[in-house]
């Protein structure tokens, strides 16, 4: 039988499990921020580029704060704003550069706070961090960083080798298909030829039996002998 000490340990275990669940719950419902699949993007000097950023939260948000931070040799905040709730669009409260515009929307669960940077300069090269803070999740914060490389011109990818490889592979596959079809055609012709030979042999054998008066064949009838 369990002793008094064992009975006392059971509530303690349940309490420990409950506390662990409460600790892990915020993790499962944590705020997430994403800047897309590619950690580095390239843009030509003098053009414009969209720096993507989206966020998600399982329990929603209220008075969500966001900001973009530029980091090259110096760190500076280039834009920040606030989103009241899921039914309102982001509102910019500070902007460091007139070339920057907020392009995102948080309506219809888009949760998009991307920015557009126009008239790019080589000095715009650097890290751009999208930072989000959600008071509804006990001021939980999260961020994601994307690297922008401003270049004189985008390099053209030479696909000659790839096209040659594809052409060779396609030619080999086509040749194999042709060989298989030719093999089947030859097999079909040989089969038909053998069938015709068998028919000829059977017909020839029947004619020989008839001429020799063998059983199963019609022999020439002879007139009866006169006495």
Automatic annotation (TrEMBL):
Q: Where are the transmembrane segments?
A: 161-182
Bias-annotated ranges (Polar residues)? 202-212
Q: What range(s) does the Ig-like domain occupy?
A: 26-147
Gene Ontology BP term (one): regulation of heart rate by cardiac conduction
Quote the PROSITE patterns the UniProt record gives. IG_LIKE (PS50835)
Alphabetical UniProt keywords: Disulfide bond, Glycoprotein, Immunoglobulin domain, Membrane, Signal, Transmembrane, Transmembrane helix
Residue stretches of biased makeup (Basic and acidic residues): 218-227
Extract the SUPFAM superfamilies matched here: Immunoglobulin
Predominantly, its location class is membrane
Give Gene Ontology CC terms: intercalated disc; voltage-gated sodium channel complex
Q: Where in the cell is it found?
A: Membrane
Q: What is this protein called?
A: Sodium voltage-gated channel beta subunit 4
Gene name?
SCN4B
């Amino acid at each position: 039988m369990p002793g008094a000490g064992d009975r006392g340990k059971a509530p303690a275990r349940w309490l420990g499990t409950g506390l662990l669940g409460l600790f892990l719950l915020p993790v499962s419902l944590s705020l997430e921020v994403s800047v897309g699949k590619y950690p580095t993007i390239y843009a030509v000097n003098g053009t414009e580029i969209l720096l993507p950023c989206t966020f998600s939260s399982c329990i929603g948000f209220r008075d969500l704060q966001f900001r973009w931070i530029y980091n090259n040799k110096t760190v500076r905040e280039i834009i920040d704003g606030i989103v009241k709730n899921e039914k309102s669009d982001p509102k910019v409260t500070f902007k460091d550069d007139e070339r920057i515009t907020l392009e995102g929307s948080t309506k219809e669960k888009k949760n998009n706070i991307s920015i557009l940077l126009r008239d790019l300069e080589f000095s715009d090269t650097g890290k751009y961090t999208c930072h989000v803070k959600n008071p509804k999740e006990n001021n939980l914060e999260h961020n994601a960083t994307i690297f922008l490389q401003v270049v004189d011109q985008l390099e053209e990818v030479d696909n000659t080798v790839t096209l040659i490889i594809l052409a060779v592979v396609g030619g080999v596959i086509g040749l194999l298909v042709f060989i298989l079809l030719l093999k089947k055609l030859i097999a079909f012709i040989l089969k038909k030829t053998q069938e015709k030979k068998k028919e000829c042999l059977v017909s020839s054998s029947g004619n020989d039996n008839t001429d020799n008066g063998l059983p199963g064949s019609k022999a020439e009838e002879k007139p009866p002998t006169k006495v």
